[in-house]
Amino acid sequence: GIRETSRQIVNVESTPIFQFAVFYENDLEMLPGPDMTLAGRVHTNGDMYLGCGGTFTLDTNHVRAVGGMYRNRKDDPTVSSGTVEIRKWVVDPFDPFEPNVYVAMNSQPQMTAAGVPTTSGYDSSFTSGWDDNGDGDFTDLNDWLPWSLGALDFWQQPATYSDGSGQTVLSGIHGVTEAVPPGVGSVQMFEPTETGTGGDYDLVGGDYVAVTPGDGAYDKGYFHATADLSVLTYTDGSWKAFDGDGNEVTAALAGVVTVSSMYDGRQGGDVQVTEIDVELLNASGEFPANGLLYSGAFSAGQGTDSKGVLLKNGEELFGPLTLVSENATYVQGDYNTVAKKPASVIADAVNLLSNAWDGSKSSGSLPDATETTYNLAMIAGIHDTIGAQYNGGLENLPRFHEDWDNVDCNILGSFVNTWLSTYATGLWVYGDDRYTAPDRNWSYDESFNTVGNLPPFTPMAVTASDVVSW
Q1: C-alpha distances in angstroms, 318 versus 224, 256, 281?
Q2: What is the average pLDDT across 16-20?
Q3: In what order do the strands lie in the sheet with 48-50?
Q4: What Rg, from alpha-carbon coordinates, does the chain have?
């Protein structure tokens, strides 16, 4: 018989997801082989694993993990290699006049070399600190603060900095909270309707067919329903295109769209791809006015049944463009390099093919890549690192299919993972007829700091924190 009232004020912030250099819903593993520098905000809703074959430099004032940060591999915690340097906090790390001071996040061997007997690097596992002379404090020359305090001390503003204060490196123990991304269902071609609401489509023989509105069990997914141009490939290999009002525009895209196949070693063989010639799309009169292009293939599965969409001749875009597909996407050749526009790809997996790609790859072959530049943000699926099976890490979020050894791959954009791949589930394997790694020249696109320069329909990440309760 007692009634109580509780009141709470909550601060909610929404951030365009492409204003992060790296955003992961899952555990984030950043373990490049060669030297790599990454600028821009980095966030994971899971754990973060850091390492490098050489030196990995994080030029940012924002490195966040809701879980822990670990200076080792997830697939083999005994491996703690390379050098990881993280910038001390400044108000604007993109300002060339701000101080540029880095502090190493030591590996386990580097801690040993410093005289600290620990089984971990300087990370979330370093919970007790190191009191070198045993005097009960951590204020002496060879003492090391435990991670909870040390991360705040090491990567705060430089000693002479007078423009503000903050910390670059924060993990779960420091109160980092989840940034909630949009759900995976939004990229699906069709989604089941909620019980009792009725939809506009039913699933018949592997295809979704229109029925009396309200009588079906499915509706178009968000991006499919919102796109001003949709290209759908059917089970028999035929395709149709529709504008934003649902009118068929297939004839207008004759020659723009073709259906072919390509060899994907990671998927195990030839996969069907719907090719879209961007140069011809620009001139077709059907370039999506709202900047959203959706492409999907019916009856997709895993392995060689994964299916996908291939963008080619995309050096110049008619306007800002976001391509969304529930299938894999392949981007062939220089993309958005002439009169750069806001651009992104949101897909089950994002694959990058170089300017040298000619479609001739087959089982056992590994064609040579040539230098290629991609100006685009991406949201792509991955698979989990489980046991000793590595998922390839951030450095392989975009997947490769050629011999890129000593060849530059240039990407200006944003790298986002918010789901596990549904169709492109082939496991990461290095070498053989899969790929060899490029020299990665990857950067956050600073133009995304201005909202008007973001790709069309950029999703938002939402965070909430308590202000007061009473």
Answers
A1: 21, 14, 8
A2: 92
A3: 28-30, 48-50, 69-70
A4: 24
> Could you say which DSSP state residue 132 is in?
T
Per-residue pLDDT, 183: 59
In tens, the pLDDT along 110-119 reads: 999 999 999 9
Closest CA to 456 of 344, 378, 379, 376: 344
Element (H, E) at 111: helix 108-113
Residue 132, judged by CB atoms within 10 A of its CB (0-12, 13-18, 19+), counts as: middle
Nearest to 380 by CA among 410, 352, 342, 340: 352
247 φ, ψ (degrees, to nearest 5): -80, 135
Q: What is the pLDDT of residues 133-144, one digit of tens each?
A: 999 999 998 999
Going by their DSSP bridges, the two strands 190-192 and 207-210 should be labelled as unpaired
Q: Which two tokens stand for residue 126?
A: 């370093």
Q: Which pLDDT score is estimated for 456?
A: 96
**Quick check: 394 pLDDT over 60?**
yes
User: Encoding tokens for residue 220?
Assistant: 């178009």
Q: What number is the average pLDDT over the span 367-377?
A: 98
Backbone φ/ψ region at 40: left (φ over 0), alpha (ψ -120 to 50), beta: left
∠ CA(332), CA(337), CA(340), 5° rounding?
A: 125
Q: 3-state class of 69 per DSSP?
A: strand
Residue 184 has pLDDT above 70, yes or no: no
Q: Residue 224: what pLDDT? A: 95
DSSP helix/strand/coil, 114: coil
pLDDT 10s digits, 97-132: 999 999 999 999 999 999 999 999 999 999 999 999
- Burial (CB count <10 Å: 0-12, 13-18, 19+), residue 452: exposed
**Tokens read off for 150:** 């040390």
Q: pLDDT at position 182, please?
A: 63
Between the CA atoms of 301, 303, 306 and 309, what dihedral angle is there, to the nearest 10 degrees?
Answer: 180
Distances (CA, A) of 337 to 412, 440, 453: 10, 17, 15
**Partners of residue 206 on adjacent β-strands:** none
If you search the block for the tokens 């996908």, which residue do you land on?
A: 308
d(CA 348, CA 327): 5
End-to-end CA distance of the chain: 21
